[in-house]
Every structure is written in C-alpha cells, then in structure tokens.
Design goal:
globular, Jelly Rolls, 5 domains, 30% strand, ten-stranded mixed β-sheet, 15 helices, 894 residues, Immunoglobulin-like, alpha+beta, seven-stranded mixed β-sheet
Length: 894
C-alpha cells in the first residue's frame, strides 16, 4: 500500500482565499496539489463543509463523498442551501491513481456569505445634495450603545453613491481606496463587507463616514458636467452585531444620522483635492464628540439598483515610491521625480504657517527647462492643495482623487528636501499571476513598462489612461490587452465585474458601448457611442480569453447572450456580411496624421469584416463549451460565410488584401480568414511590407496585437523578434530609448529630437501597446496552453521556447488553476542551450524543442519530430547546436 501523499494546498472559494461577504449561492472551489510532490496526478477528491471548524469531523452542510475526477478547480457547491451571513468551513482531500489511501485533509478554509436578499437590507440611504461645482466633502455620523460582552461578531455592509471611507470609534474600517468603485449606479451598486468585531467597545460607539463625489457626482471624461448619476451623493451602511445570546443589533443608515462639512473642501477624481486643516473637527468620528450643531442628513428609500457583493478586488495602495531627486526650476517651485510614471497620489511632508497653502501639481513629463509638461491632461486640473491649520510640519495625502504622474511640483511652502514627496501607488489589488525575466535590458524594461501600465489603468475598470480628462473603460483597449493582462495578473474577478458593466450598457438591439461603464451619453451625443467593430468585440473576446486562461465556464455562461447578441447585431448591420457601421479602424496607425488617428491604411470595412468572422467563430466555440451544439453549428456556418465574404470583397487576384497594409494581412492570417492555399501569398506580402518598413511595425490598435504572434505562428519568428527588438520608430524599444517607464498612447508621444506630440491625445500611460507581453510569455519564453479545447484552464500545456540571438535568456512563470507552470531557456557559455521549466501537477505538456537535424538533446525523451510529451513535474534539458532565431541584421540591429 502506498502511503498518503501531502494534502492539497492553496484552497480557494470563488477564486479567493477565505472570502468575506460573497453572494454566489453556488460558489466554486479549487485547490492545488502540493508542489512538493509535483509529479502527482489526482484521480478523485472529497470535499466536506460544516457550519463550524470543529464540525468538519461530522459535516452538516456538504459531503461530496469520493468523487472520481481529476478536477481541481471549478467545482460547484451542491450542499445545503446557503443563507445570508453564513460562515462555512471546508476542507478537501484527494486520491492519486497510484494510491489506495487518500491524502491528508487540507488545512481548513472558510467563506462567509453576504446579504443575499433585498429584504436583508434594513438600511436606507442617507443623502447629501451636491452642487454643480465641486464642494466640501460631508462627514456623516451616528451613535449607538453596546452592552458589556454583547458583541460576539460584527459585520459592516456598506456601499455609496460616490466614494466612502468609514470609521468605527475613530478607527478607519478597511484599507480600500476609492470604494466602492465605479458602476452604473442607476442599475448596480457593489457593497463591501468588513469584520469590525474588534473595533466595538462597551458603552457609546460611533459609526461615521466621509462621503465624496467620486464617479457618481464628480467629473467623468472630457465633459465638464457633474452629478451624472444623480443630484445627491449617498451612503448605505448596515452594521450587524451578533450577541452571545443570539440576538442581533443593527445600526443602519437612515433617520437620526447627522452631517457636516469636513476639512476636505473639494475632491474630484479629475481635478484634485483641497484640504484646509483649520476646519478640522477633531474626534468627529469617535465617541464623546458634540455634534449638536450638525444638521440632520437627508434620507431616501432603496431604489431599484441591484445591490451585489463587490465581485472584484478593491482599489488599494500597493506601493510607495520616494522621490529620487528634487529640482527648483523656478524660485519657490520644487519639482520631485519619482523615477516612475504611476497612478496614485502624492504624500507630502512640508512645513508652513497657519493659513499657508501648499499647491501640489503633477506631470508625466518635463519641459526642457525642468518645468512641468501637463498640457496633455487637457481639462483635468489635477491640482491638490493643503492649507496649514497651525505653524509647523504637516504630512498629508489626498483620500478621494488620483492622478497619473511621475513628477510632483510643490509651491507655497518653505524650502524642501527630497523626502518631502512620496508617490502612493493606487490600483485594483489583483494578485500577481505571472513572471517574466529576460537577458536583454530593453525587453526587461519593456516588461516593467507593461506591468506599470497595467497597474496605472486597472482602477476598478480597465481605463485607457489615468491622467487626462478621460479615464474611461474603453472596450478596444480592454480586448486587445486581455491575454497579456491575464498572464501578469489574476484578472478573472476584475473582468467578471467589468463584463457586468458592459452588460449594463448594452444599447437597444444589442449594440455594445464604446466604454463601460457606459458614460458616453453623459459626455457626448447620447445616440452615439456604440457598435464599433474591434471595440464592441470585447463582448466576445474578453469572456473567451478569461475562460481560456482560467477554465471558468461561468464567464461564458454569464455572457453568452451578450456575445451572441453582438454577433447578431453586427451581422444585421452589414451588406453581404460586410459591416457598414462606424468603426475606429486600425486606430493610431503610425502613418495617420496625428489629428486624424482613424485614417489608417487598412480600410475600416476590412477590420470590421475580420472581427465579425472572428467573433462569430469564438461565440461558436463558446456555444460548444456550454453544450449548445445547434447554436454552435449555426454560428460556425455564419463565421464560414463571413470568411468567404472577406475573401470575396478584399482578396485580389494577386493575393493582396485591399489596402495592402500590414494590419490587413495580420487580420487575415491571425483570424484564419483565408483559404489555406492563399495563406503563403498573404504571408509573402506581409514579409515584403515589413522589409519595406525596415522590419518595423506599421500597425495601430488592431494590427499591433497580432504582429509578433502571427509572424511566429507562420514560421517567421526572426521577423517577429526583429520587430520587437527594433529601437527605431515606430517600435516598443523606441519609446524606451526616449525615457519611457510605461507604454505610451503614441509611439512618438515624445522624442528627444522633436519634443512632444499632438497634445490632444498624448497619454504617457496607455497600456494598449503592452499587448506584446503575450508574445514575450507565449513565444519568446515558450509558455502557453494547448490551442485546442484541452488547453482551457491550462489543463494541457504547449511549450515552444524561441531562443533568439542577442538575448541571453528568457524565463516565464504562471500560476495556472492546477499549479505553477514555467518555461524558459538560457544560452550556456559554450554555445549550448539549456531549457527548463515546470509542468503543474495533474496536467501534461507538449514540448516542442528548438532543434534541427544536427541538434543533440540530453535530459528529455523520447523525441518524435522534435516534440516530447512531458508529465507533471520539473524538467531540464541541454541542447547542443540548438535552433536559434536570428533577427534580420543580427544582434547589432538592437
């Protein structure tokens, strides 16, 4: 009898460790097999769940018994019905094919339900009317009494129309920033749950809050309107205190709450925050404070908006960057350089006298004379101000705004030191899921820039930029970047939330909005802002990408009607299956004039038709995954008809695609739009165009994501590597040579020779061109999924490293649903190549070695046609005379 092997680890419920306040009535569970036994396979599992940790010995809620299955994730609750507020303890054990005995039980994990029914909410809205210009942030408070020993457990459920910070007895509750985030508040609000048991005390207690405008009442986008979602901000809070005797005391927002103006004189996400310390009311958020001169807060009943547990990670401060240098380009104006473009706020430490005001301004770049360059912020004022309440030193940072910046200017204060400024990085706190390292300084910086671009723009929604008067959830940016984002961060819950935003914005008939949440009717013409090919296709591409990366079928189940509806809408708005509606096309094609970014070489109808075929194909695959075979067959037929229409309308007798531009060929090859016999000619035309451009890309938003992957897929990894490694314009390393620490909106947003680009669209933190990150993981390091159905959720891997001359090594790692996966390579001193990695437990991998006829391989086998089947566990091999990719021009091209 084989002895038991280690217990499962990394238990997850709803893709989170011990989640508090969920509202999934059939939550999903997952775990990893212990990495210390990486070669293990699971053949069966048993989950038990109970209403107490001790009860796991005799589970009263769920016992699956032994289930013959290799599944380690996506296992749905099928136990007793879950009720509001329940805490459920659970654990799991597994069997291996070579083991009669099960593993040890895992360490216990738990999850706790939130408020599942609308009737659970006893709170009402406390509201504060907001002016048409930014005004003071209100303070709200109420008092209540708790008897000695009466509080065994306390939970606070809270949301806002606007932004909140909540305090209990003077202590801030939680670490979330800009909570509860951004939704279409008329349709959906996210609430958060906090365990506040330790903050209660016998006797008088105070529940208090600051309530800022945020997205609900502040500025959104380029319009200068306020109060987009309603004329008043509001707080909805419900504190439930469970006593030792079983009784529950509730403290809720409603009648009896009081309000007054705070020392925060204005707070706006785009314009900044102003604080006057002379107006502080010390102790306002704790017991013993005299609020007799405070006004009664207004009260409103619950409206029809859905109240749901926040489905994604909240925004938090995740890092602090002290200023590296300080300069004084003008007398009394001190400019600090963080060395990195970020999204967040600046914490300042300054000295001054009572009534003195310090002004804080921001920029992503500097003019040549050292002054701030922030004309690209457009109408976003991005100015913070702090007024001293007394003589001396003060430390302050804003609470209810954020900026995109690298440089901070302080004025109106005494001479400063470098430590006067610290950058506080804010973004949705998604866990890291992948790592990429490379022996090439330019690519190492590129990966860093991709990561910082992601951080700067994943702020509850995937924004286009974090600095100017926009910051919208653009669908086109989101769909092209989804796979790169998912390699680097655990994006499932983030995109799941954003897809709900997209659903809330669907126009009548099925047109998908340009942005989500759909603020377009507030900032532009209400009858526009939807139905743009490649942008609206996010409705299909994002759910499919997340499903492939995670294996979570719910992304398809929850969004299938949206996916199918978009394909139907686009097909209905076409002539002979060539869409006739508006599209941005290959946005920001480098050949387009800076003021006409949609004037691409690739015709818009080529882009629209290609995306209709691709979305129909992906939606057909989704239907097949969901077991909807008749629908899948219908969609496959539609996709085939659109492909024929593409060839009929846009493929010439010489094999050219109309427009004869890189993007047209990339779409045709990347989306499999051409008959097999036509693909070599299309590839030849693409190669010729690359040669004409010196091996550099000539693509915009639509073509750039496809460039390197398509070239590698069709056997021209040399050209892919050459394009990625080029330091010329346009290209990824060109902006790095100009000093970029993030991805830019334009390849030449700034150049040392010409200075700054077109100011109206000149963001220095625009993640879309970070799409090349997928190629770094997938092709360069060689870490990827099997492209077929078996690869969903990384159940089967495909490893195909691409060693490139001039790059010393490349290594990628990724936390799959089954465990950590890795693949990488390194040139050894004597010219040999070492390839190594890890295949996660419970999976297999097809390993395509970089070899040719003269290569000699040690460490893996048997090898058939250059491929090895790898079992779970670590692997390492040495290749003499490996197959090496040599970019055009050799290493000197870089």
């Amino acid at each position: 009898m084989v002895s038991a092997f280690p217990a499962p680890v990394r238990l997850r419920c709803e893709h989170s460790a011990d989640p508090l306040g969920i509202d999934a009535v059939r939550p999903q569970f997952g775990w990893w097999l212990d990495p210390s036994s990486p070669g293990r396979l699971q053949s069966a599992y048993r989950i038990v769940a109970a209403s107490s940790e001790a009860g796991l010995e005799d589970p009263d809620l769920w016992d699956t018994g032994r289930v013959e299955s290799r599944l380690t994730h996506g296992i749905e609750w099928s136990g007793a019905p879950l009720r509001s507020r329940m805490r459920v303890w659970w654990r799991v054990r597994v069997w291996s094919p070579d083991s009669v005995e099960p593993s040890d039980w895992s360490a216990p994990a738990w999850f706790e339900m939130g408020l599942l029914r609308r009737a659970d909410w006893k709170a009402r809205w406390v509201v504060v009317p907001r002016p048409e210009t930014a005004g003071p942030v209100p303070m709200l408070r109420t008092t209540f009494h708790v008897g000695e020993g009466e509080a065994e457990r306390a939970r606070l459920y809270v949301t806002a129309r606007g932004l909140y910070e909540v305090f209990l007895n003077g202590t801030r509750v939680g670490e979330d920033r800009l909570a509860p985030g951004w939704t279409d508040y008329r349709k959906r609000l996210a609430y958060l749950t906090y365990d506040v048991t330790a903050l209660l005390r016998p006797g008088e207690n105070v529940l208090a809050a600051l309530l800022a405008d945020g997205w609900h009442n502040g500025r959104v986008g380029w319009a200068k309107r306020r109060n987009l979602y309603g004329p008043a901000s509001g707080l909805l809070a419900q504190l439930e205190i469970a006593g030792t005797d079983g009784r529950v005391q509730r403290v809720v927002t409603g009648p009896g709450w009081k309000q007054a103006e705070s020392a925060i004189r204005m707070a706006d996400l785009l314009d900044g925050e102003e604080y006057d310390a002379r107006l502080e009311q010390l102790g306002w958020d704790g017991p013993g404070f005299d609020d007799s001169d405070w006004a009664e807060a207004g009260v409103e009943p619950l409206d029809r908006a859905v109240l749901e547990a926040k489905p994604c990670d909240p925004i938090r401060a995740t890092a602090e960057l002290p200023a590296l240098t300080m300069a004084e380009p003008e007398p009394g104006r001190y400019v600090f350089d963080l060395g990195q473009n970020i999204a967040g706020v600046a914490r300042i430490r300054v000295r001054g006298g009572a009534g003195q005001t310090v002004t804080v301004r921001f920029a992503e770049m500097l003019e040549k004379d050292g002054r701030l360059y922030n004309a690209n912020y457009r109408s976003a004022r991005c100015v913070d101000r702090y007024t001293f309440g007394a003589d001396g030193e003060a430390t302050w940072e804003p609470r209810f705004t954020y900026h995109g910046f690298r440089y901070v200017e302080l004025s109106g204060c005494e001479p400063l030191r470098e430590d006067a400024v610290t950058g506080v990085v804010l973004h949705s706190a998604l866990a890291e899921s992948g790592t990429f390292r490379v022996g090439h300084a330019g690519l190492e910086r590129l990966q860093s820039n991709i990561q910082w671009g992601l951080r700067g723009n994943f702020v509850d929604v995937p924004t286009d930029c974090p600095q100017r008067d926009e910051r919208l959830g653009w669908t086109g940016d989101a769909q092209v970047f989804a796979r790169t984002a998912s390699f680097n961060r655990d994006t499932l819950r983030f995109y799941r939330k954003w897809m709900r935003d997209l659903q809330d914005g669907v126009r009548e008939g099925g047109a998908i909005p340009h942005v989500a949440p759909d603020a377009w009717p507030f900032i532009a013409k209400p009858d526009e802002g939807a139905g743009a090919a490649a942008w609206a296709d996010a409705a299909v591409i994002v759910p499919w990408t997340v499903y492939r990366m995670t294996g979570d079928r719910r992304m398809l189940q929850e969004n299938f009607e949206l996916m199918r509806g978009w394909v139907r809408w686009q097909a209905a708005h076409s002539e002979n299956l060539v869409p006739t509606t508006f599209t941005f096309g290959d946005w920001l094609d480098p050949s387009a004039h800076p003021r006409t970014p949609d004037a691409a070489k690739t015709p818009a109808e080529v882009v629209a038709t290609a995306y209709l075929a691709w979305s129909a194909d992906l939606t057909a695959r989704a239907a097949a995954v969901l077991g909807r075979e008749p629908e899948a067959a219908r969609l496959r037929r539609l996709a085939a008809r659109v492909r024929r229409a593409f060839a009929r309308e846009f493929l010439t007798r010489t094999g050219r695609i109309v427009g004869h531009a890189q993007t047209g060929y990339l779409l045709a090859l990347g989306f499999d739009l051409l008959p097999a016999a036509e693909r070599p000619r299309a590839l030849a035309h693409l190669v010729a165009l690359l040669a004409r451009s010196g091996g550099r890309l000539q693509t915009g938003f639509v073509g750039t994501p496809l460039l390197a992957p398509v070239l590698s897929r069709f056997g021209r990894a040399d050209l892919a590597a050459g394009a990625v490694l080029s330091t010329g314009f346009p290209g990824w390393l060109f902006s790095i040579a100009q000093g970029a620490t993030t991805l830019w909106e334009r390849w030449d947003s700034y150049t040392h020779e010409r200075g700054f680009g077109e100011v109206s669209m000149n963001s220095f933190n625009h993640y879309a061109y970070g799409v090349v990150g997928e190629w770094l993981y997938h092709w360069l390091a060689g870490l990827d999924q099997d492209p077929g159905p078996a690869g969903a959720g990384w159940a089967r891997l495909w490893l195909h490293p691409t060693p490139v001359e001039g790059i010393g090594f490349a290594r990628a790692g990724y936390d799959t649903p089954s465990g950590h996966a890795a693949c990488g390579w390194e040139f050894l001193a004597e010219g040999a190549l070492e390839v190594s990695g890890v295949v996660p437990p419970n999976t297999h991998a097809d390993f395509d070695l970089p070899v040719h006829a003269e290569s000699r391989v040690e460490g893996v086998g048997p090898i058939t046609d250059g491929r090895v089947l790898l079992a779970p566990g670590p692997f390492r091999c040495r290749i003499e005379q490996p197959k090496v990719v040599r970019p055009p021009g050799g290493p000197d091209v870089r």
